[in-house]
Amino acid sequence: MNRQIGDIEALGVNEIAYKRGHRYLTLVYQIDEGRRRLLYVARDRTEKSLRGFFKTIPKSSLASLKFICTDMWRRYMNVIAECAADAVHVFDRFHVMKKMNEKINKVRAEESRQLKSQGKGELLKHSRWCLLKRRENLSEKQAVKMSELLKTNLRCVKAYMMREDFQRFWMYSSPAWAGKFLDQWCTRAMRSKIEPMKEMAGTLRRHRPILLNWFRARGEISNGSVEGMNIKAKLAIGKAFGFKSYETIEIALYHQLGKLPEPNQTHEFC
Fold this sequence. Notes:
By secondary structure, this protein is of the alpha/beta class.
């Protein structure tokens, strides 16, 4: 690719599935305000995949790097700690809540199996999206079902209420108060006896400093910038039609999201 990189203040790192069978790409975006583009594509989602970015991009472009926004993938965290330790590492809010939804769904699935074995399967029938969506996004039918669920003492409903309570974390203006809330929430989750939520609390505790970095970056980077770029990347992959080789998808992604320079000459027809 022949393009000028220039200074970079904020990066977004994420993985995206491009084939069945757990085939992933590592994508690195520039998410500076007013300058959002794809900078790098690599196979898989390993440490080597991301380390290749830091070897490829000129050091002068990274000298101004202030923020890196990622999901909670441990291999990416390892590389960032090694290659960009001076930047403020932030977890993407979307992926934190996505991980929590995965835990809620795990509770729901386990409880649904238990209820079916007791002949009470109707209790959680059609409940998945009621529990995973925010209440304001529920359809009328889902809202009715959710109202019924809230009258029960099911573990998945308790997990749902814990997630709704956790949403308050993002509303704090002070990192100190947010940290206090986080600690209290994790303590309640550990005492809940709901194993997937206890696992979530353990994850949040381990990554407490990075979670609180979110408040240092608020107002500096857009909350939905990485997820917005991911949606565009998925659309670009979809437009590749039946050409699903890595090379074809890489070209499609760079041309649609990389903001490559226009050629100096256009083709002339005789």
